[in-house]
Amino acid sequence: MNYPFWDVPHIGSGWVIGLIAIFHVMISHFAVGGGLYLPLTEHKALREGRKDWLEILRKHAKFFLVLTGVFGAVSGVGIWFAIGLTHPEGTSALIHNFVFGWAMEWVFFMLELTTAAVYYYTWGRIPNQLHLKIGYFYAFTSFFTLFIINGILTFMLFPGKPWLEVAGTGQEASRFWQAFFNPTFWPSLGLRCMACVSLAGVWALLSCSRINGDDQPQLKTSMVRWSAKWLLPSFLTLPLFFGWYLWEVPESQRALLQLGISTISSGVFSQLTRASFIVMSSSIVVVAVVYLFAWRSPRDLAIPHAIGVLFLALCATGSTEYAREMLRKPYVIGGYMYSNGVRKTAVAKNNENGYLATTPWIAKTTPELENMARGEAMFRGQCMSCHTRDSYRSMTRLLAGRNRETIGNLLKILHEYALESPYRKFMPPLVGTPAEIDSLADYLTVISQAPEPEAKPKLAAAPKEAKPN
Amino acid sequence: MKTLFTSVYAWVDERLGLEEIQAFARKKRVPLHAQSFWYYWGGISLFFFIMQAVTGVLLMVYYRPGPDAYESVRQITYDMNFGWLIRSTHSWSANLMLGAVFIHMFSVYFMKAYRQPREFGWWSGLALLILATVFGFSGYLLPMDDLAYFATKVGLEVPASAPVIGPLIAKLVRGGTEVGAHTVQRFYTLHVVILPALFIPILMFHLWLVQKHGNAVPPAEENKPVAQRRSIPFFPNFVIKDVAVWLIALNVLAVLAAIFPWDLGPQADALRPAPKGIHPEWYFMSQFQVLKVMGDWMRGTLGEVVGVLLFTGGMVAWFLVPLYDPNKSSGRKARQATYFGLAVLAVLIITTIWGYAAL
What we know:
The complex is a heterodimer.
Chain A: H1 12-48, H2 51-86, H3 88-121, H4 128-157, H5 161-166, H6 176-180, H7 185-208, H8 217-228, H9 232-248, H10 251-254, H11 271-295, H12 303-327, E1 331-333, E2 337-338, H13 347-353, H14 355-358, H15 371-382, H16 395-398, H17 404-416, H18 434-447
Antiparallel strand pairs in A: 1-2
Helix pairs in contact in A: 1-2, 1-4, 1-7, 1-12, 2-3, 3-4, 4-7, 7-8, 7-9, 7-12, 8-11, 11-12, 15-18, 17-18
Chain B: H1 2-16, H2 18-27, E1 29-32, H3 40-62, H4 69-78, H5 83-110, H6 119-141, H7 146-160, H8 166-174, H9 181-213, H10 219-222, E2 230-233, H11 234-259, H12 282-297, H13 302-324, H14 332-357
Antiparallel strand pairs in B: 1-2
C-alpha cells in the first residue's frame, strides 16, 4: 500500500512539494515580474537612445528565457506530480472544482512560453515597436497565469462561504467564480505582484553584476541602479497588502499566529509565527542589502554580492510560501477538507463505518488486516501527509517517552476533537473506529520506542494485492 | 534638524577629533582582487561574537548557575517572552562564529597572510580560535540537560587521560569527582568572566594588527606591478559592503534561530544511562574521532595518548608555520606549507564526516 501515501525518507513527502514549490516560486514570479522588466527597460533604452543597455538586455532576455522556460516550466509540472502523490484527495478536489480554471491557465501558459521565445529570437530582427509590443504581450499573458493560479491557491486557504454552502452537494461548479474571487484573492494578488516586481529587480542585478565596472562604469552604474529601484514598490506597499491579507484571513487561521504549542513546535511560538518572523526580517534585509551593495556601490557590484541578494530573496519567498501553507492548518482546503484528506462532512461516516473501510485507497476485497498492518495503514492514511516516522516532524521524537497508555490518550484527544483542545488549531481530527485507533496506538508505540536494530519488530505491510479502487 | 546635527557633531568633533578619524579611515585602502571575498570572514566572525555578547548578557539576566540551572533554562525557553529566540540566537551564533573563524583561518593560511610581518596576527588569531572552542565547551554544559551532562562528562575524560597532571586538571574543572552543580558554577565563571577577560584583549590586539599591517594580498596579486593592483577606500566603500555582509549574516542567524530553535532535552540525571550516540559538538568531532580510532587500534591508554600527541603535534606545527614559511618567495617551503594546509583541511573534514557517520 505505497500509493498514494508517499513514503519519502528523511524529509517527508510534504517537503518534496515544499522544495519544488520554493524553487518554482523564485522562477515563476521572476517570469511575471521579468516580463514587465524587459519591455519597460527596453522602452526606456529606446527612448533614451541607450544602445549599450539594449545589448545587456538581450543577454538578460536569453537568461530569462532559459531559466523560466526550462526550469520554471519543469518545476511547475513537478509540483503537480508531487501533490498528486502526497495528497491525492486534495488534488482530486482541486481538479474537480477548477478544471476550467486550469484550462484557462494553460492557454495563458502556452502563450507565455511561445511569446518569451519569440521575444528573444526576434531581437534586432523586427522593428523596435513591434518587438516592444511582443514584450508587453508577454507581460500580459504571464500576469494572467499568476492571476488564475492565485485564485486557486487562495481558494485552498479559504474558499469563502458561498462555495462552502454547496460543497459536497455536487453543485460546486455553480459557485466557481465566488470560489475563485474568494476573500483573500485581491490582497494575495497584490502581494504576489509586488514580489514579482522585486524578483525582477533581484534577478536583473545578477545579470548586471557581470558588467565590467572598470571598462563600462557609466553603463554599470545606470543599469544596476535602475534594477535596484525595482525593489522599492514592494518595500513601500508590501506591509499594506500584508495587513489587508491578514484582515481577510478567517479569524480561526489568524489566531494561529499567536499560538504556541510546545508539543507541535519547539518554543512558545508556532512554526507559522516563526516563519512570519523570517518573512519580515528577510524582506527588510534584502532591501537594505540592495541599497548598500547596489545603490551605494553600483560599480563594485560583483556576482557574489548579487548571489547574496538572491539568497535573501530566497529566504523571503521560501518562508512566505511556508507560512502560507502553515496558515491553512488544520485544513488543506479551508473549512472543507482536513490536512489528512478527510472531508469535514465525512468525519461522522468515517467514525461509524471505519476509516479503512471508507477510504478509496484500500480495495474492498482486501482480507482483514492484522493489527500492525491496520495501524500502519491508519498512519499512512492520516498522519503521513505531515509526519514522518523518524525524520521531519518525526513521530519517534514527538512521542518519545510516552507509553502505550499515553499515546492512546493523545489519540483519544485527537479523535474527540473537543472545541477547547489546543491540538484542534493545527491538527485534523483522527477518524476511525475504536479498533482502528487502537491499532494506530499500537503501531505508534512500537515505532516510537526506537528499538535496537536486531530487536526491530517486523512492521507488517499491507497485503500485496491491496490496490486502490 | 540638520543644523542641530551639525552643531552636535562639531561639538563632539572639537573634543574627540572625529574628522581625524574619518580622514584616517578614508586614507586606508582595502585591496580589490579575485579573492577579496575572503576578507569579509574576519568581520563575519566579529559580528557573531558581538551577537554572542549581546544575547549572552540577556541570558545572564535569567540564568541561574548551580542546582537551578536546568529549571532556569527551561523558564527562559518556555516561559519568558522571546526567551527561546534569545537562547536560540546565542547557540546558533556560537556555532556560526566558529564556522566563520575556521573559514577565516584557512583563507588567511592559503593567502599566506601569516608571513612577515603578520606573524602575531596569525598567532593571536589561533589563540582566539582556541578560546572560542573553550567558550563552546563551557557553554554547552550550562543548560544541564541530558545531552550536555553526558557530553561534558565524556569530554572531560580527555584531559583526565593525560599523564600525571590530567586527573588533577579534570578534578579542578569539575569541582569534584563528578560533573554536577559545582561544575556548572565553574563553567559559568569560566564562560562569562575568565574567557571574556582573556578573549577581548587578544581580540583588540588582533584587530590592531590588522589595522597596522593592512589586508594581506595573495601571492598571485603580490607579483603584479603596483600600478595594476586595485583597491577601494576602507571608508565608506568597504564599510558599506561589510555592513551589507553583516546584514546577510544576521538574516542567516535569524532563519536558523527561528526555523530550528535550539532544543532543550530532559534534565540531566547521573543515575540514568547515557543517551545513545553521545558526541561532542561538530568542532571537536575530528579530535573525538581520531581518539576513538586510535583507541580501537592500540590497546589500553596508549591509543588515547598517541591521539592526543598527534593532535598536539599538528597544532604546534600549524602554530609555527610563519617561522617555517616566512618570506614572500614562492619556493619549496611555500609549496610544502600549502600542501600541509591542504592535508590539515582534508583530515579535519574527513575525520569529522567519519565521526558523524560512525555515530
